[in-house]
Amino acid sequence: MKGFRCEGCGWISTVKRVVCPRCGGKKFQEVYLSGECRLLTFTRLYAVSEGVKDMPLTLGVVEFDNGARVLGQITSEKVSVGMKLRLAWGLLRVVDGKKIYGFKFKPEN
After folding, report:
1. Are residues 43 and 83 in the same domain?
2. Residue 14 near residue 31 (C-beta atoms within 8 A)
3. Residue 80: predicted pLDDT
4. Does one domain contain both 93 and 61?
5. What is the pTM of this model?
6. Is 50 exposed, middle or buried (0-12, 13-18, 19+ CB in 10 A)?
7. Helix, strand, or coil (residue 50)
8. What's the chain's Rg over C-alpha atoms?
9. In 3-state terms, what secondary structure has residue 54?
10. What pLDDT does 35 receive?
């Protein structure tokens, strides 16, 4: 997964930006987000978007070693704050026959 680190303040985004929302900097360095991360917070959703098959849907915010934070689906039924996870890319839902993919996080075993 690719991220972008502001050269001014070090803030990391998964979306390429023109201006850093924290410091106003305009120079970014490409960084890669991979490997282990830890769960900061999560929620379980029982009313979900069309095409989501797994209920309840567990969404979480994870933090990588470099400080980057990412929102994604958690694939485990047993979830606790602080648990170690690993980034994966997977199917999120199917809408009108179109498959939609995105970030998922799997337990580190």
Report:
1. yes
2. no
3. 96
4. yes
5. 0.81
6. exposed
7. coil
8. 15
9. coil
10. 75
- Residue type for 2, please? K
SS (H, E, C) 9-45: CCCEECCCCCCCCCCCCCCEEEEECCCEEEEEEEEEE
Please report, for the domain that includes residue 65, its CATH number: 2.40.50
Full residue range of the structural domain in which residue 5 is found: 1-32
- According to DSSP, the β-strands at 69-74 and 98-107 are parallel
Considering the domain architecture, whether residues 92 and 61 belong to the same structural domain is answered as: yes
Residues 11, 56: one domain? no
- Report in angstroms the alpha-carbon separations of 9 from 21, 26, 68, 102, 103: 10, 11, 13, 28, 26
- Say whether both 18 and 43 belong to one domain: no
Q: Are residues 25 and 45 in the same domain?
A: no
Predicted confidence (pLDDT) per residue in 41-83, tens digit: 999 999 888 888 778 899 999 999 888 999 999 999 899 999 9
Residue 22 contacts by C-beta under 8 Å, 6 or more apart in sequence?
6, 9, 11
Q: Give me the number of domains the chain comprises.
A: 2
List 99's β-bridge partners, or say none. Answer: 94
